[in-house]
Amino acid sequence: MKKGLLLIQFFSMFLCLSSQAQQANGIVVKGTILDAINKDQLVGATIQIINPKLSTSARLDGTFSFNLPKAGTYTMHFHYVGYVDKDTTLEINSFKRIHILLRPAYSELKTVSISDKQSRETESSAKRTEQLSANMLNVVSAKAIQLSPDITVANVLQRVSGVSVERSGSGDGRYAIIRGMDKRYNYTLVNGIKIPSPDSKNRYVPLDIFPSDLVERIEISKTLTPDMEADAIGGAVNMVMKNAPERFYFNASISTGFNQNVADYGFNAFPVNAINKQSPYEQNGAAYIAKPADFTRDNLNYTNKKVTPNAIANLSIGNRFFDKKLGVMLGGSYQNTYRTYKNIFVPGDQYIDKTNAVGVLQIKHANFRDYSTQVTRIGLNLKSDYRFNENNTIGAYALYTILDDAQSRLTRDTIQTGSTRAGYGTGQTWYYGRSKYQHQSILNTTLDGKHTLMPGLKFNWTGAYSLAENNIPDLAEYQYNTGFFADGTNPTPYQHGNTLDATMHRVWQDNTDKDLSGYANLAFTNKLRDIPYTITVGGMYRDKQRDNKYQDYRLNTDGTAQPWIDIYHYSWSVNNANGSPANFNTYRATEDVSAGFGMIKFKIRKLETVAGARLENTSLSYESDALETQVGKRGSISYSDILPSVNFKYILNEKNNLRLSYFASINRPTFYEIVPGGNVGDEYSETGNVLIKHATADNFDLRYELFPKANEQILIGAFYKKIYNPIEYGFTGVKFDTYSPQNFGDATNYGIEVVFEKYMGNFGLRANYTYTNSSITTTKFQTFNNQTVAQLPLQTRPLQGQSANIANAALLYKNTKKGIDVQIAWQFTGERIALVSPVYEFDQWQKGLNTFDLSAEKRFKKHFAIFVKVQNLLNTPDEIYIKQPTTGNAAPVSYQVPGSSQTLASKSLYGQNYQLGLRYSLQ
């Protein structure tokens, strides 16, 4: 925290020096330079005085100033890339304030629907999109992303009001939680088209698979209109990839860096190329009897590396050809990063019965884990369009992203109970090794057309093919145990020999999701008396095919006590030599979603209204490889929903909007949640639920918007959601040890959002705060005197993943004349439930998290820039607690604070991440 305060003091000192510098003597000329059409600030525009030769640049708020030596007549020259230069002569005898408007160079072209490439990537363009949109939007521009500390889309999203992220194993953001609604209640679009998820269990898309440099802007929709797909109770994330420019565009960067933990502790690597990409079952067929030699040992052989620098490169290039009719944009991104992090983990087997009392929390195990993960992220983007004439345009788009994650996990597990544990450092100890390699990819291709059939009548269509893949080949593990004991005669504990444990697993998982989608909309625009209106009707159809494969082999030591030396010096046999030929987790599924909508948009004086309804039908069926005699081998569900919505926008004036909206939405269960299969996980078993219902919701929003200047804003809003049959995971079964999706009755979620963005000269402040309150009541497990209580207690809790308080702030400094940009960003996520427990008041809560990030850029020689990014500046620990004391342990418990009312369940330290790079931009 001290480091963060020092940085804030550093910016304050800059602000004071800037203020003092403005007190210089002379005749002062101040002015503002704006876009002549939409009044956007032209940040960085150059202003020159011819004689004497003076020059400056427009600041963050579009202002500039000169201190002239004397009164006289001066000629001034104004220049901004993509705009028509302007010259003016002024007679200046005393203080003068001027207002300059530059006209975009493209405005003289006759072709319609043309906009300047640079303007679409600026902050002012993002604010303009928010102001003019029919629904409630937050937009993050490419320029803001470029100058931010973030390199993935997921990390960018955590800066948006009302959005927090769920992190991956490496500490990076992975999934967006919007307005306290868990990731399952949101969906992801690429250029307005929904994409499938490579996740083996869920619909939501891992957003860390997308490099942020490929994005032109990110749009977060908080409310829906009838032409948007309805399965978003929280919101929708739309990634708009870089479009074809109006002139030659070139942007490239290369950078390197390192993770502080890697520098401190090294990196535990294993040979990924040693992994068997296919299981014996897949390689040889169902009749094959697997042998011990079919399972490699090399992927469990770890080498500690000391020097593992990161490598990151990005390239975007585009232009228009054939008299500006054909536009092409190519983009590519490569990221290879290494992370090491330390984790303390307490497994979930904590509840024990008591005599003549309710059960209590007991810690049986405490794991200390060393993770090392190498993430390779590749993104390729092609976007093109062809303008036949003013009335007809077609576009083609392709995006291919890859995320390869090679992770090693070395665990030391110490027993916390039993007579052998006399205190710290004594008792039974287990050592585990696990190697996991995961390959995920998303391919999205679209072909679309925009046509004006006749004045006032437009027809748009889109065809899309998407493929998401997830492959985890040969998830491998080993386990051996030892112990440290004190025999009463020697105070120093002694160690008995290392002994291999009996059973190890080798698992192959593979799944694909294929989407074939079609969209068509017809819009008619006219006037009824003096009231302009647009009526739009349309529909969509999506055929989704899911293919899921799962094989689990168990390797046994035949009950013999083999000493552990290393991975190469013991023998095993294959317990299930034919693999897992008949299991629920190998299945094929089909989902057909069809929808139609009608919508009208009209404006009566200052009130703009968008209203209509959407009808969606969902039909899902599956067939698994389970035995014919097993219940649930195949199944199907079908349901339809009529979903009305209305969005009001009252335009108080050109800078103020007042919005009010209502929309109905849904949330579908996933294939995995319906198929009655299951996995045996690290801490508990998972299974589907054939009786699960899809969730529905009524959503209400109110927001006041003020845009004082083109890149400034003040937003104040409130929302309320009533969710019927929300889908959340909880525990079931006789022993309450099975984790499954369930409908927990109804829930509410409401809150407020505030956004503030203001610029003063070279300084800026960007901040937002969201308060969210959700509530759901469910039954929980409890025992008294070793018996389950007759009347299970009710517990009211927030929805899983919902934080009451989320806040962001960024302090910005920009000197366009010297080419300097500096940003320090703070992000706070309040406490939230990370895991819903089956036991009364035993839920696991993630502690409130404060993170600081820093980024800076220095431009030189017109097109070059050096940049620095530092993430997790203060190395903030990520901690999870159970709000119960540890009362069932006789000896001291490792990693716990004696006498505390809370019990640590997990703690991770990810370390700082440093990046230094060079960028070349020609725009």
Highest-level CATH class of the domain at 117-242 = Mainly Beta
Number of strands: 53
Head-to-tail CA distance between termini: 39 Å
Instruction: Give unreliable regions as ranges.
Output: 10-24, 107-118
Q: What is the overall silhouette?
A: globular
Determine the strand fraction and express it as a percent band.
Answer: over 45%
Structural commentary:
The protein is mainly β and 923 residues long. The chain is built from eight helices and 53 strands. The strands form nine sheets. The protein has a 22-stranded antiparallel barrel. A five-stranded mixed beta sheet has the order 8-13-14-11-12. 43% of the residues are buried. Mean pLDDT is 88; it is low at 10-24 and 107-118.
List keywords for this structure.
923 residues, mainly beta, Immunoglobulin-like, 22-stranded antiparallel β-barrel, 5-stranded mixed β-sheet, 53 strands
Concise account of the structure shown:
It is built from 8 helices and 53 strands.
Element layout with pairings:
Layout: H1 2-21, E1 27-35, E2 46-49, E3 54-57, E4 63-68, E5 72-79, E6 86-92, E7 96-102, H2 117-120, H3 123-132, E8 137-141, H4 142-147, H5 153-157, E9 163-167, E10 173-178, E11 186-190, E12 193-194, E13 215-221, E14 235-241, E15 249-259, H6 260-265, E16 267-269, H7 280-284, E17 303-305, E18 310-321, E19 326-345, E20 351-354, E21 357-361, E22 365-389, E23 392-415, E24 427-454, E25 457-485, E26 494-500, E27 503-528, E28 531-556, E29 573-574, E30 587-604, E31 607-624, E32 634-653, E33 656-667, H8 671-674, E34 678-680, E35 685-687, E36 695-706, E37 713-724, E38 727-732, E39 738-743, E40 747-760, E41 763-779, E42 783-784, E43 787-788, E44 794-797, E45 805-815, E46 820-829, E47 832-835, E48 844-846, E49 849-860, E50 864-871, E51 878-882, E52 903-909, E53 913-922
Parallel strand pairs: 1-7, 11-14, 35-39
Antiparallel strand pairs: 1-4, 2-3, 2-5, 5-6, 8-13, 9-10, 11-12, 13-14, 15-18, 15-53, 16-17, 18-19, 19-22, 19-52, 20-21, 22-23, 23-24, 24-25, 25-26, 25-27, 27-28, 28-29, 28-30, 30-31, 31-32, 32-33, 33-36, 34-35, 36-37, 37-40, 38-39, 40-41, 41-44, 41-45, 42-43, 45-46, 46-49, 47-48, 48-51, 49-50, ...
